[in-house]
Write a structure and sequence with these properties.
The complex is a heterodimer. Chain A is an alpha/beta fold. Chain A contains four helices and four strands. Chain A has a single domain, classed as Rossmann fold. Chain A has a four-stranded parallel sheet with strand order 2-1-3-4, sandwiched between helices. In chain B, the strands form 23 sheets. Chain B has a five-stranded parallel sheet. Chain B has a five-stranded parallel sheet with strand order 30-37-31-32-33. Chain B has a five-stranded parallel sheet with strand order 47-46-45-51-62, covered by helices on one side. Chain B is globular, with a radius of gyration of 41 Å. The model of chain B has no long low-confidence stretch (mean pLDDT 91). Classes of the chains: A alpha/beta, B alpha/beta.
Chain lengths: 138, 1464
């Protein structure tokens, strides 16, 4: 990939927790890299493997899924399902030769604006490093 | 909120009154909630939004209730809506003002652990989402004591931020001579400065001078082009014809003239001298005020359009008649006190005697008065000192002669000091007697000694001692003992008194209409600021006079009230020395008239300004006004009175955490590392002061050992709070667990008396903390906290293994109780409802939530401490009670909005309109909105793109509707803030424009872009483009969604005829709904039949009989005894149920309430059932009536509760035991009653009875959790052996009666059966599981079904009644509507693709999918919650969640990911 190009990361966030936390990160002016692009979902339980894979096909450098804390899902079990699907998708990614670490699931409560920002920073850093290594190898 | 939401949903118009600036109450402050550790904000935030948006809820926040008149069904409520100084309609909560506000205050919301600004929002998610300015204090002493009302604190704050020009502009609003005043003012502001109590006053005068000089310097350097004495747009553009004459061009006259010019009048200043300035020019020598500076400031004023006529003396050159003839409508006299007061001094006609005023006037003209080598100045005022210092500069030796002591001299002390430094000699306590002369020329001044005589009555008098006499050498004598006004030309037509013009002090009107007077002619010789103040006052009066308005209404009072803001609590009291301006040495300066004092440097000024303590809660520096692009800030806003007509009132009161400083032994407020649980809640919160990191307040270090001390201000007779606050145990456990989650190194310890984990799920939570989470529990009361001064750790001593031990902790958290909010008192008085002795609202006996006044209902913590679900239940229950009262007017006041017919857009090409929001500068300062909007215009489908200042403002909304029409748009995107708060608003706009609301899409480029990428504007702009492009992609695939309307069956089915079922049935029937009440037994009454009395003695049996009669007699209730439910079908609004045994086999109903009750546990062991004198509390209840003597009674608690098989607390048994124990002791004081317990859980007011029982002599023995008492029989005699933990040994009691406090067990068979029929979840104990433990305590996830009473969890009768009312209230919100709109964001199944695999049925927790007649899965839109889990799970891809379809989502992220289309 182009060295100067900033990686694009899609963040699937559930409306009730992670998306609300992202809002709070904004209100609190918590800074994080512009690589993160949030896609809002009603619940992370809406996430399925095809969707995650498709995001990579469409050019995402990485994908994060952020839902409620375990036990706090507004729709009761959606975040647990999402977690499983993310795990399965990671295996699939590995099969097709994509570093499974480019996909990650997080649990972020609505009040955790700073955590959302921190997670975004850390995930972006990690992805940038992975991409750097890939560039070196090729 | 719950009461408001339910009432509104019940078809009533609701006014939600809140005294704080935002709703949310105490829950908004919480981090997590017990017993699930759910995030509090996650739960409350959607409620806040829902309440804020409800069409029929009008939130009146920041308002106080003033008066309530009338009666149930017809109240008139008077409200005072406090000025928030921000317009609620126009403020959009962007927060720019907050960033600029210079005043910081301790943030009460964050437990005062952090700061907020004077303009603030309670918390980021606050509803209404608008700011409020805190003006709770009076003016700061500096501003309050300034005669001209110059906003000292404001400009000081601005200087501290380096905003010099803004500071100067602020000064000029009240003080047109900023630089002059900055040089010569006598600064009462500094005299009153609160900082004096810490070190020295802030050097205010010099700050003012600095900003004025700084501007002049910039002008001279050419860095600014022009200077104006007024701010932008401060001069009326429309000029007026009326002419005003100002006579006297001193500070008062010029101020008045300038004010009037600003208002557009034609003003002429007539000045007798040849130059303007009055005493500023003639009375103050150059070394204090250089003339060129004075000229500069006067010119600034003149420039604004004042006409000046100099050299014209009133009375000589013109008169008022002339002025009238020339067309002047009004006249202002401010001729000053220009005449020197003559003193009776023998020989004062000698040559060499001259008066001070003319002397200074000569100097001011640059002339050299004829003075000799030795000058004696008579007097002690400022004029005397000025004269002396001037004479000194002319080369003379100068002596000031004054009758009294130096301290008593009226001149400013600093002037005297400077004069002495420069070499002026001071002769105090000498009175001039005679001018010594030779040949008519002065040779000296003969003086006599003055002595102060103290008279017997405490008075003093000054007397001359002619015996002590001397002559001071002098060839010139200058008396400077005062000034007078020359009124000779005025007094013949205007009233005067004692040499001054008489005026009305408020308006400055003279006896002659249209003529006003001010300054020295009214006040006598006065200061610059006083004259300026009079100038302003006169100008206001003259303007009103010309306009024919009342001169007196709403005028600022003249007298300074002296009630100033105090030093803010928690202000930094560190001593910082005052900055003094530099000054040449006295020997250098006393020979020249060059200005002495140097101005501050920029750095000096900022440092000095930062010393300001910011005493007033708002500095009124107007930074917020300047910053707000929406023009929402209005510092002149006034309180507003409102009157409402309402039918019923719900008083929710509230609580206030106990003030821990009332228990000084715990060191709160003394030791920094002792904090309250409320503060710790904020410490844990991610949005709190430490962003969720656990730190010690003292040094920010991570604490390792944290102790919680329970019952601080609860169960405490010494503070008058001898009730249990009921939530502290649980929140302490929660806080301890969460702290450990945040930092596993933390070792939490909870010191407690009893752990009161009595609610649903609480016991397991407690066990989890104790056994899994590593929280240490120590059963010991802590009597005091000591601090280790070295480590700042805290020493606690407590009982361990029978002896005292001491242990040090890094931090102590005081679990403070809940006390009645002080406002309950005023509220209670206004509402005329009773309070109990603790200040909480009193409920009527056996009528939970009814206040002592008909039509006023109670809910929440205002009527006693309680946790969130109980509060929520009470909210719904209170709504039900209102609904019963007001059923006849349901749906009459509530509004329903009408919309235009929707345009049909199916099949049309997408015509997308995008609105990119600046959000003031919130977005546009980082994201280039113009670039974004230009870029969007090039995207396929976009026919309109523009950028707007505030897209949510009403005018933009209107414009949006017009553009939709003009451009025939069929998809709309707004790129602005978060859809969480604004999506609904824009969807409304679409509906108003005739578009389906689902054709709207929102992109957040504020929270997700400008605010979080502030330092990367280019990348942020690029990202904004990507995000909006994503929305454009999705938008093209959006389709209108029409909602389905289904009719609602208005009957209710209530299952269970106990007190809960009957209460729910009665409430619904009283609200006008038909109820089918089923009972499995042959009679109504349930468990209440076994209860005789309430703790306070109230008779349950009579109550029950009445209830049953009421139910049986009610025409809207059909009761089915011996009846069970066979089958249930349908969903919300339309259920049908099969009954067995009843008269009717099938019932149609819109809602279902489960009130299936529970049973008493049948004890195992304890020889129960083997002997007659061993019984349960229930058995004892009626047995008591039969006996007179009881002998020895032993009660054993927690039988069938809190054990391995029943890991929950049955909540009622402790109170039951105490009730019966008290009964026994009152009937038979000789009886020995023992209660053997583990934790005594007499929560809330039940605690009072616990104490009563102890006072009556009931013996309480605590035994260990794992070691129940042993019951044996010996010689036909019962023997109870118990391990008493207090004395640490075994005790044996031989009771005549053994009473087992048996717990409550779920009605397993019934619950299981219904759970299967209706697919409702049960918890591990067999109780029904509500939709959400905290916020939906009577709802199920499946809509239209509700639960109450013991079927939900063990609770006492009054709580059951409340919960039943709550269920009735919630159920009625459905029944009160005729139809239900279903659909919207729900899943849909494409039947052709469905493989009937039933995956969706398994996935859905809401039971929405079902198999239809075709054998395919279908989704019931009434049940679907729109989570999309089924869509994700469907292997055939047959399910789509509307508005989040695969096509739409894919288009969204594909478009985000696609490379940017280059813009040519």
């Amino acid at each position: 990939m182009d060295e100067n190009k900033e990686p694009k990361i899609i963040a699937f966030c559930c409306h009730y927790c992670a998306f609300t936390a992202a809002d709070l990160a904004g209100t609190m002016r918590q800074q994080y890299p512009p690589n993160i692009h949030i896609v809002r979902l009603p619940c992370t339980g809406k996430v399925h493997m095809n969707m995650l894979l498709q995001a990579f096909v469409d050019g995402a450098d990485a994908v994060m899924v952020a839902g409620c804390e375990v036990g706090s899902c507004h729709f009761l079990e959606g975040n647990i399902r999402a977690k499983k699907r993310v795990e399965n998708t990671k295996r699939k990614l590995e099969e097709v030769g994509i570093n499974p670490e480019k996909l990650e699931m997080y649990h972020i409560a609505a009040s955790e604006g700073p955590l959302f920002a921190q997670t975004s920073r850390e995930f972006t850093d990690k992805i940038k490093k992975i991409l750097e290594n890939e560039t070196v190898k090729t | 909120m719950q009461a408001a939401l339910d009432s509104a949903e019940l078809g009533y118009k609701v006014y939600l009154l809140e005294q704080e600036p935002a709703i949310g109450g105490n829950m908004a402050k919480l981090d997590k909630t017990f017993p699930t550790n759910d995030c509090a904000m996650c739960m409350i935030s959607p409620k806040l939004v829902e309440t804020g948006r409800h069409l029929n809820i009008e939130i009146i926040s920041y308002a106080d209730l003033e008066k309530v008149e009338g009666e149930a069904g017809n109240f008139t409520v008077k409200i005072n809506k406090k000025a928030r100084y921000v317009n609620e309609e126009t403020c959009n909560g962007c927060g720019e003002c907050e960033q600029e506000c210079p005043v910081a205050r301790r943030d009460a919301f964050n437990g005062e652990l952090s700061e907020r600004k004077a303009i603030y929002r309670l918390y980021p998610q606050a509803i209404p989402n608008v700011y409020t300015i805190d003006k709770s204090t009076p003016y700061a002493p500096c501003k309050g004591s300034c005669p001209a009302g110059v906003n000292v604190q404001g400009y000081t704050a601005l200087i501290a931020k380096g905003k010099f020009q803004e500071a100067l502009n602020l000064i000029r609003e009240q003080m047109p001579f900023a630089g002059v005043c900055g040089r010569i003012c006598h600064h009462p502001c500094e005299d009153n400065c609160n900082r004096k109590d810490i070190d020295e006053a802030v050097s205010v005068r010099n700050l003012k001078r600095f900003v004025a000089d700084y501007e002049k310097e910039l002008l001279q350097k050419g860095e600014i082009a022009d200077v104006s004495a007024v701010g932008e747009n401060d001069i009326e553009e429309v000029k007026r014809a009326e002419k005003v004459a100002v006579i006297g061009g001193g500070p008062g006259g010029l101020t008045c003239a300038h004010d009037l010019v600003k208002k557009g009048f034609q003003v002429t200043v007539f000045e007798a001298a040849d130059k303007l300035g009055g005493m500023m020019r003639t009375g103050i020598p150059d070394y204090r005020l250089p003339k060129d500076y004075l000229d500069y400031e006067i010119d600034l004023l003149i420039k604004d359009g004042i006409e000046v006529k100099t050299g014209l003396e009133y009375g000589k050159d013109f008169t008022t008649t002339d002025l009238k003839n020339e067309g002047y409508t009004s006249v202002f006299f401010s001729t000053g006190a220009q005449k020197a007061k003559q003193i009776p001094l023998e020989g004062s006609d000698a040559k060499g005697v001259m008066y001070g005023i003319p002397f200074l006037r000569q100097i001011s003209k640059g002339e050299k008065p004829p003075i000799g080598k030795h000058v004696a100045v008579i007097g002690g005022g400022n004029v005397a000192v000025d004269v002396a210092r001037s004479a000194l500069r002319l080369g003379s030796k100068v002596t000031i002669v004054y009758r009294r002591t130096q301290k008593e001299m009226p001149a400013h002390s600093w002037e005297i000091e400077e004069a002495l430094e420069e070499g002026v000699e001071l002769r105090n306590s000498w009175s001039p007697a005679k001018v010594a002369q030779s040949e008519g020329k002065v040779t000296g001044l003969e003086v006599e000694r003055c002595i102060t005589i103290h008279k017997g009555d405490g008075k003093k008098s000054l007397e001359v001692d002619p015996e002590q006499r001397m002559t001071i050498e002098a060839d010139t004598i200058i008396p400077a003992t005062g000034q007078e006004c020359d009124l000779s030309t005025i007094e013949d037509f205007i009233e005067t008194e004692k040499g001054l013009i008489s005026t009305d002090p408020l308006t400055l009107e003279t006896s002659e209409e249209g003529i006003f007077a001010g300054g020295d002619v009214v006040l006598g010789p006065s200061s610059l600021v006083e004259s300026v103040a009079q100038g302003h006052r006169a100008a206001e009066s003259i303007s009103r006079y010309i306009d024919g308005e009342n001169l007196r209404t709403d005028r600022e009072p003249v007298m300074d009230v002296g009630d100033y803001a105090k030093t803010p609590e928690n202000a930094d009291k560190k001593r910082i020395g005052r900055t003094e301006p530099s000054m040449p040495d006295p020997e250098e300066r006393n020979r020249t008239f060059i200005e002495i004092e140097k101005t501050f440097t920029k750095e000096d000024a900022i440092r000095e300004a930062q010393r300001c303590l910011q005493c007033a809660s708002c500095a009124e520096c107007m930074e917020c006004v300047r910053t707000c692009k929406a023009d929402a800030v209005d510092h002149n806003q006034k309180d507003e009175q409102k009157e409402l007509k309402v039918g019923a009132i719900i008083a929710t009161g509230g609580f206030k955490p106990f003030d821990a400083s009332q228990k000084p032994e715990y060191g709160y407020g003394i030791f920094p590392n002792v904090i309250t649980s409320v503060q710790f809640e904020r410490v844990l919160s991610a949005s709190g002061p430490y962003e969720g990191h656990v730190k010690r307040p003292y040094d920010g270090k991570k604490p390792k050992k944290i102790a919680w001390i329970q019952c601080v201000g609860s169960r405490d007779v010494t503070t008058g709070n001898d009730y249990c606050s009921s939530v502290c145990c649980m929140y302490a456990i929660k806080e301890a667990m969460i702290a450990k989650e945040h930092d596993p190194e933390i070792e939490p310890t909870i010191f407690y008396i009893d752990i009161r984990a009595f609610g649903k799920g609480f016991e397991s939570f407690y066990n989890q903390a104790k056994y899994d989470a590593g929280v240490r529990f120590v059963r010991s009361q802590i009597s005091s906290v000591k601090e280790n001064p070295l480590s700042r750790g805290l020493q606690l001593s407590f009982i361990k293994d029978g002896g005292y031990v001491e242990e040090e902790f890094d931090m102590v958290v005081l679990s403070v109780g809940l006390t009645a909010h002080p406002s309950n008192n005023t509220l209670g008085d206004i509402l005329n409802i009773e309070r109990n002795k603790f200040g909480f609202f009193e409920e009527k006996q056996l009528q939970p939530l009814a206040s002592s006044r008909e039509g006023i209902y109670l809910c929440g913590a205002g009527n006693g401490p309680k946790d969130i679900p109980e509060t929520v239940m009470q909210g719904s229950a209170a709504a039900a009670l209102c609904s019963e009262l007001l059923k006849s007017v349901r749906n009459t006041e509530a509004s329903v909005k009408e919309y235009p017919v929707e345009k049909q857009v199916e099949g049309e090409e997408p015509r997308i309109g995008v609105f990119v929001c600046h959000c003031g500068i919130n977005i546009s300062s980082v994201v280039d909105v113009e670039e974004v909007s230009e870029y969007l215009k090039k995207l396929p489908g976009v026919v309109h793109a523009e950028h707007t200042l505030y897209t949510c403002s009403q005018d933009t909304q209107k414009k949006m509707r017009e553009i939709i029409d003009e451009q025939n748009l069929n998809r709309i995107i707004v790129a602005s803030c978060t859809p969480r708060t604004h999506e609904g608003l824009f969807q409304e706009t679409l509906r108003e424009a005739g578009l389906n609301k689902y054709l709207f899409e929102m992109t957040d480029i504020r929270e997700q872009c400008s605010w979080v990428h502030q330092k990367e504007p280019e990348l942020a702009t690029r990202k904004a483009k990507s995000l909006v492009k994503g929305s454009v992609g999705k938008s093209a695939f959006q389709e209108p969604i029409s909602l389905k309307t289904i009719s609602i069956n208005k009957d209710a089915l209530v299952i269970g005829g106990g007190i809960s079922g009957m209460t729910a049935a009665l409430s619904l029937a009283n609200q006008g709904f038909k109820v089918h009440l089923t009972e499995k037994n042959d009679k109504l009454g349930g468990n209440l039949a076994y209860l005789n009395r309430e703790l306070d003695g109230e008779d349950w049996q009579t109550f029950l009989k009445n209830k049953i009669n009421e139910v049986e007699a009610h025409e809207l209730i059909d009761t089915y005894l011996n009846t069970n439910i066979e089958a249930v079908n349908g969903s919300i609004g339309n259920f049908s149920s099969q009954l067995n045994g009843g008269h009717k086999d099938e019932i149609e109903h819109g809602v279902t309430i489960l009130a299936t009750g529970a049973d008493e546990y049948k004890p195992e062991g304890f020889l129960y059932g083997k002997k007659d004198n061993i019984m349960t509390q229930r058995d004892l209840e009626f047995e008591l009536e039969k006996k007179e003597k009881f002998g020895t009674v032993v009660m054993v608690q927690c039988v069938g509760s809190r054990d391995d098989k029943h890991q929950y607390c049955s909540r009622v048994c402790c109170s039951e035991a105490i009730k019966n124990a008290i009964y026994i002791k009152e009937k038979d004081p000789g009886a020995d009653v023992y209660i053997l317990y583990r934790d005594l859980r007499t929560y809330t007011y039940r605690e009072v009875f616990y104490r009563k029982a102890r006072e009556l002599g009931v013996k309480f023995i605590h035994f260990p959790d794992e070691e129940y008492p042993e019951v044996t029989e010996e010689n036909n005699e019962l023997k109870v052996r118990v391990n008493d933990t207090v004395i640490n040994s075994y005790i044996t009691i031989r009771p005549d009666h053994l009473v087992l406090s048996a717990g409550i067990v779920a009605n397993n068979d019934v619950n299981q059966h219904l759970s299967e029929l209706m697919k409702l979840p049960l918890d591990e104990h067999g109780n029904f599981m509500e939709a959400h433990v905290k916020l939906r305590p009577v709802d199920f996830a499946s809509e239209g079904i509700f639960v109450c009473g013991l079927a939900h969890s063990p609770k006492n009768t009054e709580e059951n009644i409340t919960q039943a009312l709550a269920a009735a209230g919630r159920a009625a919100t459905i029944l009160s509507k005729d139809t239900l709109e279903v659909g919207g964001v729900v899943s849909e199944i494409e039947e052709e693709k469905c493989a009937s695999c039933l995956t969706c049925l398994r996935e859905c927790v809401f039971d929405a999918p079902f198999v239809n007649d075709n054998g395919k899965a279908e989704i019931d839109p009434a049940k679907c919650q729109g989570c999309g889990n089924c869509a994700a799970a469907c292997p055939a891809g047959a399910i789509q969640l509307l508005t989040f379809t695969d096509k739409q989502e894919e288009a969204l992220y594909r478009n985000i990911l696609e490379e940017e289309i280059p813009v040519e």
